[in-house]
């Protein structure tokens, strides 16, 4: 597997912005989305274990998942995916969604030191907005929450990170990306991001962190963090 190396002219003081994935980094929501996705798969006769579900579908675009269902089952998912699946996920957000511990303090710290931040997610913007309101974090990402609706190609294509960096007015090489998914890590690497922090603190990675972390490093992550508190010094060293 390829591992991306930062450009030779990269300097630590070149970091100008922080780009967050959302599910599994800001919101501890991947277990909700993946559990409901597994229920959808079962309706089409597709049985997957949790490890395969995480490694193959964490951060994947809806289009990729539709094509997977069609290939594996020979059926058109119709409204079952993504519409009905997304409705079930949103309904569970109202009762089960929790913030990743420590993220509020990190966002406040970045605001205090005036480092621009944004979200670059494969999720629909409507769902991102709902989740941010539910968690009370919307003020941190006003007009800076970018989702799958904003680009033609989802992760692992680099489009969403290139789009986010452009909206912040910086080069992707001068960004830190915090990402929990394999597809997102590949996307950040291919966007030329200099510092990619593979985040392993989400509850969906319980019992799976060592293997998943190895995958992230092999595909471009420059650092691993098991908690938000481990991210702050990585960022501070590069400002």
TrEMBL record:
Residues of the signal peptide: none
Keywords, ordered alphabetically: Hydrolase
Pfam families per record: Hydrolase
Organism: Cohaesibacter celericrescens
UniProt GO molecular function: hydrolase activity
Identification of the protein by name: Hydrolase
């Amino acid at each position: 597997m390829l591992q991306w190396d930062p450009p030779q002219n990269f300097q630590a003081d070149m970091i100008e912005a922080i780009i967050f994935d959302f599910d599994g980094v800001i919101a501890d929501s991947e277990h909700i989305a993946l559990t409901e996705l597994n229920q959808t798969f079962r309706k089409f006769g597709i049985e997957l274990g949790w490890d395969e579900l995480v490694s193959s579908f964490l951060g994947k675009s809806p289009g990729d998942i539709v094509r997977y269902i069609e290939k594996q089952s020979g059926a058109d998912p119709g409204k079952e995916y993504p519409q009905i699946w997304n409705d079930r996920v949103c309904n569970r957000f109202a009762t089960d969604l929790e913030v990743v511990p420590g993220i509020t303090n990190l966002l406040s710290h970045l605001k205090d030191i005036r480092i621009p931040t944004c979200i670059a997610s494969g999720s629909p913007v409507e769902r991102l907005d709902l989740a941010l309101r539910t968690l009370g974090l919307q003020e941190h990402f006003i007009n800076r929450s970018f989702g799958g609706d904003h680009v033609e190609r989802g992760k692992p294509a680099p489009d969403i990170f290139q789009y986010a960096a452009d909206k912040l007015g910086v080069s992707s090489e001068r960004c830190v990306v915090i990402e929990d998914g394999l597809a997102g890590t590949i996307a950040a690497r291919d966007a030329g991001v200099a510092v990619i922090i593979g985040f392993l603190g989400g509850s969906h990675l319980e019992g799976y962190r060592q293997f998943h972390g190895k995958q992230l490093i092999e595909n471009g992550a420059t650092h691993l963090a098991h908690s938000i508190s481990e991210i702050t010094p990585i960022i501070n060293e590069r400002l």
